UniProtKB/TrEMBL annotation:
Name of the molecule in the record: ABC transporter permease
Compartments (UniProt record): Cell membrane
Pfam family, one: FtsX
Membrane topology summary: Multi-pass membrane protein
Gene Ontology CC terms, in alphabetical order: plasma membrane
Naturally occurring in which organism (per UniProt): Candidatus Blautia faecavium
Length: 846
């Protein structure tokens, strides 16, 4: 026997009756859920990709690793119940083929676990099994000029004894390969266990005999059963197996600082969620508030029939749940698809496969947030409907009255405008909600645009490149550092560049030596490196101990390592430019005589005493007396690539003077500018040389840096503008809903004023004026708040860094005519629909 449930039945019938209102509400819920889902997808995917990027940079994704241990320790670790998997590897040496200069290629044996967790497991072929087999990544194959075909012969040159210049050539058969991990500084060359064991047995010295050796180093990666409390778990495991003295390191990706950094990266997403909640609340609340106001007499009649306050609230919430059942699933699907599109844009900085999270928590969280937004939006309208009495409902006119009626005298031509303004004041709360909803999206759009427009590409490029093109010797990026005697920037390449007639060029040479420190220089060092400053350096610089040893030795011996740069042309002019002078001056004509030197100090404010030679001092460099002309701040395109853990005195010499001191040294870097129409030709020459002659040569182009800059800043623009536009769309939807509801609910009222003489053009004009009033008030609020937001908030946000503040309200200017157009169009369409019914038909309506 079916039991009659009046509220459930009434809920169902009322829902079917209010199709127009429900449609707008469903659209609002879809948009709100869509944004929540998109933001959840983006934040979760950003976190996963950030961790994946850290894994790739570290070279492995296991929780812990042992850089040097033994097979016995690995066996004990593998047998422990808290250890899921153990990866093992034996290092033999580093490939020293000329073609691999600048790319460290480690020759090793590894088991499948170690290889797979090192992003180096063959995607084609297998790991080596036979003695003469080898597996390599595609970067090494390309550098060696070997086709990506299994069975190809590969010859590697390497040293068994790192303290000897004797090299060994080993020839292998390619049995597997994979795409290189571009985020890692090294490639792996996997050999068979048989080859590794034979190399160790035949070696005169191994790492076990001499810690300075590489051959025979036994490395281990540990995968635990859980990611929680890794350090405590590792200590417990080592205690259980009796190996507490073993040194290990925890993968940086699992460090707590990474969680903090990931949170900061996702902070804009969380702020976006708050904005979505606010925008969703504004429209959904307004929809239900308008609906309750329109149906207030209906609720009054229900009260007369004995319906309780609780039942009426249940009726309102029942409508909301039905709308959620329709809107939330659709919003989840659209939001996830939008997230899949946006994630590659936001993480375009990452090499390798981009991860798009499909964690069930994304959909659960988005649904909960969306439903919660709807629930909170319904609370006040439901309370309002539940409190109404039958008599109040019959007298309700959708206007808030304070009991005082004011009569204003108006000229006839102003009556329509007065009526339009008066209609806005009939329900001030609704009017405020609509204006706030529209204003929120416009203000956010203005602020996001101004923030993105303030990014200054010139500031970004200043510390990265000083020329259209910069080429680096291939040994510059090798693990051993730049080799001035075996440079790879050939005269042939320089000749091709000179044939382009470059507008400007610059040479850079580099070598090291020893230099005597004057008493003045030592005093400058001691005055600059105070105890407080040294303690500050020690707090964040992991190489401080090594640097401090060199510093103390320099003070004691009055001698220090000198890093000498030979420079001319545009790189020298950039190093001595006004923004980089810390003390003294740079006079190009005097410097060209070869009698002067520039000292490089730390990055500090001009006027600060520098810990180097004083301006005007005469110093002895490689047997030649030179006068210190000035002290300059380090210029990254010049000093990048140097080892920074040791204390040194850095000096810039005129290039020809340097060449006379070190005639056998090769050029380290070369810079040149070309005419705009020659940019592509220059790029092709450099790329061709890189592919055919020197794969290790690094090319830095100004255009590449600009493209990288745009990729890094694109995410901010896409994210901010997407949120702003959708919130603005929600605002427009709110405006449409309010206008349509206000006009439909006043059909009878309009019929009455038309019956006493108002013409159709007058009614149309009044409705359009009402719509324009909404737009004018919105624009006034938007311009005022946007001016404050851009002029104060955005200015504070972009101060410093790679930004130059530019005040602009361009999005608001563009949106102004669009908003005014909608303000005219929507009332006009509503009027057209209204006129489909005659005055008599509308007068008969209840």
């Amino acid at each position: 026997m079916d039991i009659f449930k009046p509220i459930k039945t009434l809920n169902k019938r009322t829902f079917k009756q209010k199709k127009g209102r429900n449609f707008v509400a469903v659209i609002a819920i879809i948009l709100t859920t869509m944004l929540f889902t998109t933001l959840f997808v983006l934040s979760q995917s950003m976190t996963e990709n950030f961790r994946e990027m850290t894994f790739r940079q570290a070279g492995y994704d296991a929780q812990a690793s042992f850089k040097s241990t033994s097979k016995e320790v690995a066996d004990k670790l593998e047998a422990h119940p808290q250890v899921k998997e153990v990866g093992r590897s034996i290092v033999l040496g580093t490939a020293e083929n000329k073609e691999l200069a600048g790319r460290s290629t480690e020759i090793r044996w590894a088991n499948d676990s170690y290889a797979s967790h090192s992003y180096a497991f063959p995607s084609v072929g297998t790991m080596p099994k036979e003695k003469d087999e080898i597996a390599l990544d595609t970067m090494v194959l390309d550098r060696l000029g070997i086709p990506h075909n299994l069975g190809e012969r590969v010859t590697l040159t390497w040293r068994k004894d790192m303290n000897s210049q004797e090299t060994t050539e080993s020839t292998f058969t390619l049995c597997g390969y994979w795409e290189e991990n571009q985020s890692s500084y090294a490639s792996q060359a996997w050999v068979s266990e048989e080859f590794a064991q034979e190399a160790i047995e035949n070696a005169s010295v191994t790492q076990e005999d001499d810690p300075s050796q590489i051959l025979g180093t036994y490395m281990v990666q540990v995968n635990l059963n859980t990611d929680e409390n890794i350090e405590e778990t590792m200590e417990e495991i080592l205690g259980d197996i009796g190996c507490t003295g073993e040194e290990y390191s925890i993968n940086l990706a699992y460090d707590s600082s990474m969680d903090t950094q990931a949170f900061m990266e996702n902070l804009p997403m969380y702020a976006g969620m708050l904005l979505v909640f606010l925008a969703g609340y504004l429209i959904i609340y307004n929809i239900f508030q308008i609906g309750v106001a329109a149906d207030i007499q209906f609720y009054g009649k229900l009260k007369t029939l004995g319906t309780t306050k609780k039942q009426i609230k249940k009726l309102i919430y029942g409508q909301a749940w039905r709308l959620c059942i329709i809107g939330v699933p659709i919003g989840l699907v659209i939001g996830y698809l939008l997230g899949r599109v946006l994630v590659p844009v936001l993480v375009s900085f990452q090499d390798g496969e981009i991860l798009v999270s499909a964690d069930p928590l994304i959909f659960i969280g988005s649904a909960v947030f969306a439903v919660l937004t709807v629930y909170i939006s319904c609370m006040r309208p439901a309370k309002m409907a539940g409190k109404v009495s039958p008599m109040e409902a019959l007298r309700y006119t959708d206007a808030k009255s304070d009991g005082k009626k004011k009569t204003k005298k108006s000229k006839n031509r102003a009556v329509l405008y007065s009526m339009a303004w008066a209609n806005l004041g009939r329900n001030k709360k609704r009017t405020v909600m609509v204006i706030c909803s529209l204003t929120l999206g416009l203000v956010l759009l203005s602020c996001f645009y101004a923030k993105n427009a303030s990014f200054d590409v010139e500031k970004y490029l200043m510390d990265l490149t000083v020329a259209d093109f910069q080429i680096d010797d291939s040994t510059n990026a090798s693990s051993e550092g730049f080799d001035p005697r075996n440079g790879t920037i050939s005269q042939e390449l320089l000749g091709e560049i000179e044939a382009l007639n470059p507008r400007e060029t610059g040479r850079l040479y580099y070598d090291t030596g020893e230099i005597a420190l004057s008493d003045t220089c030592i005093a400058n060092m001691q005055n600059f490196y105070t105890e407080e400053r040294l303690a500050d350096y020690a707090s964040y610089d992991p190489t401080f101990e090594s640097w401090k040893e060199g510093y103390d030795a320099a003070l004691t011996s009055k001698k220090a390592q000198a890093r000498l740069y030979g420079a001319d042309g545009l790189i020298l002019d950039a190093a001595g430019s006004e923004g980089y002078i810390l003390d003294g001056e740079y006079d190009p004509e005097k410097f060209a005589t070869g009698n002067y030197v520039l000292a490089i100090g730390p990055a500090a404010d001009p006027g600060t005493g520098m810990p180097t030679f004083s301006v005007g001092e005469t110093i002895l460099v490689n047997g030649q007396e030179l006068t210190v002309m000035g002290v300059v701040s380090p210029l990254q395109p010049m000093v990048s690539g140097n080892e920074t853990s040791s204390f040194s005195m850095d000096l810039i010499l005129q290039a020809d003077v340097f060449v006379s001191m070190y005639p056998e040294d090769c050029m380290r870097k070369y810079y040149f500018n070309v005419a705009e129409e020659q940019t592509e030709e220059a790029q092709e020459i450099l790329k061709g040389y890189q592919q055919e002659v020197d794969a290790g040569m690094s090319i830095t182009s100004r255009q590449t840096m600009i493209d990288q800059y745009e990729a890094e800043t694109r995410s901010n623009g896409v994210m901010g503008n997407t949120i702003s536009l959708v919130i603005a769309l929600v605002g427009v939807l709110n405006f449409i809903n309010s206008m349509v509801t206000a006009i439909v609910s006043r059909k009878k009222e309009f019929a009455m004023i038309q019956s006493v003489g108002m013409t159709k053009p007058q009614l149309r004009k009044m409705l359009i004026t009402e719509g324009l009033s909404y737009a004018v008030l919105t624009l006034l609020a938007s311009y005022l708040l946007s001016a404050f937001g851009v002029g104060v908030v955005v200015r504070a946000m972009v101060s410093g860094g790679f930004s130059t503040f530019r005040f602009t309200l361009l999005p608001l200017v563009i949106c102004t005519p669009i908003l005014l157009f909608f303000a005219v169009l929507i009332p006009y369409l509503c009027f057209r629909n209204l006129e489909k019914q005659s005055i008599v038909e509308r007068l008969r309506m209840e």
